[in-house]
Design goal:
The structure holds two protein chains of two kinds.
Chain A (H helix, E strand, L loop, with lengths): L2 H16 L12 H20 L1 H5 L8 H26 L5 H9 L16 H22 L5 H29 L3 H20 L11 H6 L7 H19 L9 E3 L4 E3 L5 H11 L3 H14 L1 H22 L1
Antiparallel strand pairs in A: 1-2
Chain B lengths: L6 E7 L6 E8 L3 H12 L7 E6 L11 H5 L23
Antiparallel strand pairs in B: 1-2, 1-3
The chains are: A mainly alpha, B alpha+beta.
The structure holds fe (ii) ion (2 copies).
The site of one fe (ii) ion (FE2) has 4 residues of chain A, from α4.
């Protein structure tokens, strides 16, 4: 294709998206669209998968069978979310193996929030309430994104997420209505998870140069700062109901705008964790790579069993 | 010898009376594993009563580039639709 033809194709392509048409895997697409989507969808998939680690940490120590069953189901959902999203990424012409490789080699990123440790049971409450809460805000915005397989995966995921947040909030509620020590645990978890949750929406608008492009492709419907504000506005009243305090002395309600105004995020910490220097980056990757490597004989055995069965079938038939 | 598990497409009937619909895909070593995985990945909340799996390589798909050739001829055949035919209003039940 000549440069002019490509330009023409690109214009037709952009117009389709502007008309709210979906792009399907075999449609022509600009290379940049393909690359950006591989990066974003796989990053999302990796986040679901790595996100199982901090919660998996508490499955065997859940305080009751009810909590254990719920947490197990939630973590299993996250595995499912990872799988929907890996499949969506693969439709763009990259193999699962390559995707894992990118994660394991550190080339691909995942949400930084999962590089924080889950040190008490209250953290499981805070993760469901805040981390899944923030994820839902991001994901609802993506249900109308332009790439068909991504949008469909998002719709399924959103349907499953609301239980995640509710089970987390219920844990917090129970702790807050418990003994003073339990309530203190809940407060401590909020203290540690609040700021990292705000960071989940990404850098400030003026520091995220791809916003305009992402808006055009409907990878974003609202800017990072707008989504962050939405999260704060919905979460502060929920903390009030729990009777615990958001660890931000600058938090004030502005009756004129109807929004909460909050303090400055520690962006140094944000970039440190993104660059791999968070409290658990190393541990998380070791867990992932270790699981992949330890499982390799199982994958190979299953494959050779399948091949043998196939051969037997053919021999029988002839 | 290192081989990736092949890709399978998953179709689920959500309830009797409805057709199987494409739900997504997954990797599995063989058909039996593909069915088991499909159950875990796509029907954790009673989404289905029946599952089909088929290895993706057996699906032949039309090419979007042939879209015009394949589907445009149908566009000018308005006489395939009931509204093409002019009948007086007095004619009922037709
Ligand atoms: Fe999820
Ligand atoms: Fe979740």
């Amino acid at each position: 294709m000549s440069e002019k033809e490509v330009k023409n194709m690109e214009e037709i392509f952009e117009a389709r998206i502007a008309r709210d048409e979906k792009i399907e895997p075999k449609d022509w697409m600009p290379e940049k669209y393909r690359k950006t989507h591989i990066r974003q969808i796989s990053q999302h998939a990796h986040s679901e998968v790595v996100g199982m680690l901090p919660e998996g940490n508490w499955i065997t120590r859940a305080p009751s069978l009810r909590r254990k069953a719920a947490l197990l189901a939630k973590v299993q959902d996250e595995a499912g979310h990872g799988l929907y999203l890996y499949s969506a990424t693969e439709t763009l012409g990259i193999s699962r193996e390559e995707l894992y490789d990118q994660l394991h080699s550190g080339k691909a990123k995942y949400s930084s929030i999962f590089n924080y440790p889950s040190i008490t049971w209250a953290d499981i409450g805070a993760i469901g309430w805040l981390v899944d809460g923030a994820a839902i805000i991001n994901q609802v915005a993506l249900c109308g994104t332009s790439f068909g397989p991504y949008a469909r995966a998002m719709v399924r995921i959103c349907k499953e997420e609301s239980f995640h947040q509710r089970q987390g909030y219920e844990i917090m509620l129970t702790l807050c209505n418990g003994t003073p020590e339990q309530k203190e645990m809940a407060q401590d978890a909020l203290n540690r998870w609040w700021w990292p949750s705000l960071m989940m929406f990404g850098p400030r608008d003026e520091d995220s140069p791809h916003t305009a492009q992402s808006m055009k492709w409907k990878l974003k419907r609202k800017t990072n700062d707008e989504l962050r504000q939405q999260f704060v506005d919905q979460t502060v009243p929920q903390a009030d109901i729990l009777g615990i305090t958001i660890p931000d002395p600058d938090m004030t309600y502005n009756p004129e705008t109807g929004h909460y105004e909050f303090g400055e995020i520690d962006w140094d910490e944000f970039w440190q964790v993104v660059k791999g220097h968070g409290p658990c980056n190393k541990e998380r990757m070791e867990a992932r790579v270790g699981a992949w490597e330890r499982g390799s004989w199982v994958r190979e055995a299953a494959m050779s069993y399948a091949e043998k069965q196939e051969k037997k079938k053919i021999a029988k038939a002839s | 010898m290192k081989k990736e598990w092949p890709l399978w497409e998953v179709f689920v009937r959500s309830k009797n009376g409805l057709e199987h619909r494409h739900f997504g895909s997954l990797h599995a070593a063989d058909a039996e594993m593909a069915l088991e995985n499909a159950r875990d990945v796509y029907t954790r909340r009673n989404e289905g009563v029946s599952i089909w799996v088929v290895e993706s390589k057996y699906i032949t798909a039309s090419n979007p580039e042939d879209h015009g050739e394949l589907f445009e001829p149908a566009q000018d055949k308005v006489y395939r639709h009931p509204t093409f035919y002019n009948l007086p209003d007095e004619v009922k039940h037709m």
